[in-house]
Design goal:
This protein is an alpha+beta fold. The chain is built from 4 helices and 11 strands, in the order βββββαβαβαββββα.
Length: 170
């Protein structure tokens, strides 16, 4: 069931819309853009543990740091783990950023067209049409085992807890 929840951006109120997902829920499928013509869904990562790192825009400091951190962690987690970063940035911007940052172990996927990921995962920011900073860890069967949706957009997620949640599944 969709609902609205309060969060903040630099202390100013923003509204998150969509369901409140929690550990034990089945992860909603998604269709996110790899580029302008190709999409990706949960099925593309079947049988793998998934860490989904959601950022509002890859071109901001915290989002940049979050994506770089998970890119570093990816090589330590093995072949049965995939890390996906979701943002509402255009696929062109994501590809440009990855090339400039040397990020090559994280899949960047775009929620720019319909914000369908944000709506189905409960992290769409109503006022900005961006997705709220959050982390979802899914087991190999797409069951959610860990969720962190930040209350303040500019704060960092708990990297250690997210990585620990992944390690508990491998």
């Amino acid at each position: 069931m969709s609902q609205e929840r309060a969060a903040t951006l630099k202390g100013n109120p923003i509204t998150l819309i969509g369901p409140v997902l929690k550990a034990g829920d089945s992860a909603p499928d998604f269709s996110l853009n790899k580029n302008l013509l190709e999409t990706s869904s949960l099925q593309d990562y079947a049988g793998k543990v998934k860490l989904i790192s959601v950022v509002p825009s890859i071109d901001t400091g915290v989002c940049d740091a979050q994506t770089r951190r998970f890119n570093e962690e990816a090589s330590k987690l093995g072949d049965n783990v995939v890390i996906i970063t979701v943002s509402a940035d255009l696929p062109f911007a994501q590809a440009r950023w990855c090339a400039a940052a040397g990020v090559d172990r994280v899949f960047l996927l775009s929620d720019y067209k319909e914000n369908s990921f944000g709506k189905s995962y409960g992290v769409l920011i109503k006022e900005l049409h961006l997705d709220m900073r959050s982390i979802f860890v899914l087991d190999a069967n797409n069951q959610i085992t860990y969720v962190e949706v930040l209350k303040e957009m500019t704060e960092h997620p708990d990297y250690e807890a997210a990585i620990a949640a992944v390690k508990n599944l491998i």
